[in-house]
């Protein structure tokens, strides 16, 4: 297992729709292990493969605290149902140092394959619903800030540009 570098906002890989995984072999299983190790080290509750520069439709999620881990693997996930609404703070490992309140659905149902290639259905409310939506957004080339009003997005973009100029990004 290895901790991989998390790519930051501005890297083109993050804006591209990820390619589906056709074969779940040792390379994909190693990718998944590396993703969990990277996510836990960051620390975060979710990570999409494109956040470590890999353009494949793979995401990992674990919203539980250490000692109560409940890792979820999502290969080729598809959102099949969304209901209700939440308006809560969200952040992203690829946009470090920023948190914004955004509107998400309060319930999410996602189908995917697990690391063994078995079909899974993940349903969640609250934090899990947000994480499922956040990671599937990443795999489709979207960020949580895309859900913000344009003026709030511009403020974040301006701050990112400032940090890049100061070599803090």
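^ Assign residues to that structure.
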């Amino acid at each position: 297992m290895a901790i991989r570098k998390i790519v930051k906002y501005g890297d083109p890989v993050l804006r591209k729709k990820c390619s589906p995984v056709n074969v779940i072999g040792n390379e994909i299983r190693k990718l998944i292990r590396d993703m969990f190790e990277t996510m836990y080290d960051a620390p975060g509750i979710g990570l999409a493969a494109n956040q470590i520069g890999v353009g494949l439709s793979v995401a990992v999620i674990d919203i539980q605290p250490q000692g109560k881990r409940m890792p979820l693997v999502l290969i080729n996930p598809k959102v099949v149902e969304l209901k209700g609404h939440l308006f809560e703070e969200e952040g992203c490992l690829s946009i470090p140092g920023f948190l914004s309140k955004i509107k998400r659905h309060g319930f999410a149902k996602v189908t995917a394959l697990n690391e063994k290639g078995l079909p899974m259905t993940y349903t969640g409310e609250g934090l899990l619903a947000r994480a499922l939506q956040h990671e599937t957004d990443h795999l489709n080339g979207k960020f949580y800030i895309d859900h913000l009003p344009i003026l709030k997005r511009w403020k974040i973009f301006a701050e990112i540009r400032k940090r890049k100029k100061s070599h803090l990004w």
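Strands lie at 46-48, 58-61, 72-83, 86-91, 99-104, 107-113, 119-125.
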